[in-house]
Write a structure and sequence with these properties.
heterodimer, A: alpha/beta, 10 strands, globular, B: 118 residues, alpha/beta, five-stranded parallel sheet, 5 helices
Chain lengths: 288, 118
Amino acid sequence: MDSEIVYKFFADYIYKNTGIVYVKADYYRLDMRLNAMVRELKVDSPKEVYELYKKNITKEMHTLIVDLATNNETYFMRDKKPFKALTKAVLPRVLEKKSIKGSNIWCAGCSTGQEVYSILMSIDKDCGKEVFNNVKIDASDISTNALSKAKNGNYNGLEVQRGLPATNLVQYFSQVDDGTWNISNDLKGKINFFQHNLLVDPFPKNKYEILFCRNVLIYQDIENKKTILENFFHALVPGGFLILGSGESLIGTNLAFKQEQIEETIIYEKIDEKALKSLPVTKIESAC
Amino acid sequence: MRVLVVDDSRAIYTMVKEMLIDGGHDAYWAADGQKAMDFLKEEKVDVVLLDWNMPVMDGPTFLKENGKQIFTDAPVMMMTTENSPDYIKKALSLGAVEYIMKPFTSDILFNKIELVLE
């Protein structure tokens, strides 16, 4: 059997279920994932994996392929600046409008948890206990394995050194054994983790003041990006903020966001649609 | 950037030196805290990487001495197999500004250097 048929079958399945695009040039990455499935399913070759999936895809088999297809590259305080933008500008602006000094935040595509824990550590350090105590934070990911690790909060010696200052390590982690560190219950207990597929699952409306989704959209094609960004727009309250990864933007969409650069980070503020007529709005359009 | 590696293991120094050179930096070696002090009285560096356990003068003693005499104003970062929270807290209280636990990767080394030079 032509291995191209095997690759195409899995590339199509992954695209349909996660939106992650594997073009022919990415098939070598797909091959690595198929070989991981060979080991997991205890068969002899990718072709045997293909035969199994052609027959019937159980829930466990679906989970396995989604977990392997998603790229869980992440680390604490990744890029640093977005967290400064959050605590120095975004959160203070949100709090200005509220009597209770808290906020609803969603970290979409939280992977193994480093991003959402970095958000909470930054808020705790920079904004004080009152704000920290009143922040409500949701964190979601498509991958069962990644979410399980995020909820568990165990990280190895290399993971806790990637991006994390030593002061944060001793403040927010306890050492479980020689090579494992566990994040404190004070942080873990504040987060509502849930599984969410950005392409197929429903989105809440007008719920969040701040939405973090970094380095997730880069794996999606233009159409899926537009759909997800439109859903993010509706998930935010008027005046809410969207923070994307440094390589991501609203290009190709026509959503009523006001764009601004703070701490070398582009932030997008959802315009209050009721006030649209009286406010100058920058609509971001492109030829894409 | 000039980095002083204070470690009694030549193998560790060689490994870290290769990482630093790959990153475009200069590496210098002192095999214990006393040799590091002597070196720093003559030479300026940008960062000091300091092992915990060494003969003649160990890492914590070097930090204490530097607290009294200040023979370097470069940030001092621990680089050690000692990895318990108590060790980390002690080093930070003695004046170390960051802490690298062995084993580590070059990514971690450069990330930590970036952190202390901010």
